[in-house]
UniProtKB/TrEMBL annotation:
Pathway: Polyol metabolism; glycerol degradation via glycerol kinase pathway; sn-glycerol 3-phosphate from glycerol: step 1/1. Residues 4-253 form the Carbohydrate kinase FGGY N-terminal domain. One of its GO terms (cellular component) is cytosol. Glycerol binds at residues 82-83, 133, 246-247. It comes from Mesoplasma entomophilum. ADP binds at residues 12, 16, 268, 311, 412, 416. The keyword Protein biosynthesis does not apply. The gene is glpK. This is Glycerol kinase. InterPro entries: ATPase_NBD, Carb_kinase_FGGY, Carb_kinase_FGGY_CS, FGGY_C, FGGY_N, Glycerol_kin.
Amino acid sequence: MEKYIITLDEGTTSARSLVTNKKGDIIAVDQMEFTQHFPREGWVEHDAIEIWNTQRTTLIQVLNKSGISPSQIEGIGITNQRETVVVWNRESGLPIYNAIVWQDQRTADYCEKFGRKELDLIRDKTGLIINPYFSGTKVKWILDNVKGARELAKEGKLMFGTINTWLIYRLTGGKVFVTDHTNAQRTLFYNIHTNDWDDELLDLFNVPKNMLPEIKSCSEIYGETFKGLLSKNDETQFKICSSIGDQQSALFGQLCLNPGQTKITYGTGCFILMNTGENKIMSTHGLLTTIGVAIGDKITYALEGSVMVAGAAVQWLRDNLRIVYNAIETEWYAGQVNDDRRIYVVPSFTGLGSPYWDSYSRGAIFGLDRGTKREHIVRATLEAIAYQANDVISAMQKDIKRPLGEIKVDGGASNNKFMMQFQADISRSKVIKPINVETTAMGAAYLAGLAVGYWENIDDIKSNYKIDFELTSKISEEESKKLIKGWNSAVQRTFGWIKEIE
């Protein structure tokens, strides 16, 4: 009887479950969107119970769709939106507040209050910067602003986790409270030199250690799902055997296993990671030092750049401006204009991420004239995603002091041939897209399979990687520099917008 791996891929706007076979083929997928809450400007929240119910539903649905017996599942892997914070009551198992999402900017003013000493301490210990993006300031906000939270924390009655921890807790019926190194490192509470929670950092944010989960590797058996997960009388229990942040999962799924190998994932945001092996490179150009993957006792590091708004900019065209009916149309519209108008869209709707880290920037469109049409704005929005990714690529090249020869791409927008060609044009690197762009899900699946011997080793996995297309630049270096100059000018004009108008 053939065996399979299930991946739970919990993203920013939807929860998905995927069934994978030994060849790396995806047999079945089920996906459900969940509600996005925007209670105030710059605030983004999710209902953690809704996330759990949505993810559980997709797990049941994907088994039903695939026609596979539960007994054929070797294990479950989990990959998740990072930095999103859930704080729940240890006794009831219920959240005390909505999950605060990684995009949320409510702690921007708090982050501004840190002095140079604290900023250096955080940078040196965590590899990160102080920014609302990361989990730590969100946890502090919940403790400071939810009635009774501080008292419950002092009594040891609260638990904090990123979404992976929350799902493992629920899947095991509250028996297992763990996280993995890739998610732990994004909290601002984790020391990348000791690879453990850091008391000095916890004191800095006034967060008690008793709220934090145990840190495990990304590939091991954490526990089993509770009986009755699939239906009331069903006794099936699945092993939960991988946990990894979505971007690190994509790095592993793209088989970027050697230092220097780089991937871009185009999702709600856009994330660029470069494997740096066992070497922790501390960026001097606005990038983050992060954990790439932890397998057994070995920890691999990476350089990362984070773009806050990528696919979300296309959703904005569709849902807010309503100038396209669906994302697929954007490629066609972009191809309808080829004149000398240089329109720039800067989609900094929730501030700018790497390498600028400006929480006060807001979105803008530059270069409009009487001849500007819908097609120009659609095209400029797609180009903006590539420009933002290129900003990070440029910073990486400065940090490692050499050009990037190739970049592996995945995520929904990697199917947009116009955008991928533009990425190759301005980045002057070969863009490689695999046939299976579900690399985030595949990373977690591979790690789960390795934990239970479904795949014997990494060499067993490499044959699953097949290329769809490779693109190289079709424009001159002079032309790409001219385009980038215009982009740089546009971005700079959005800096500090919120502060400027107050």
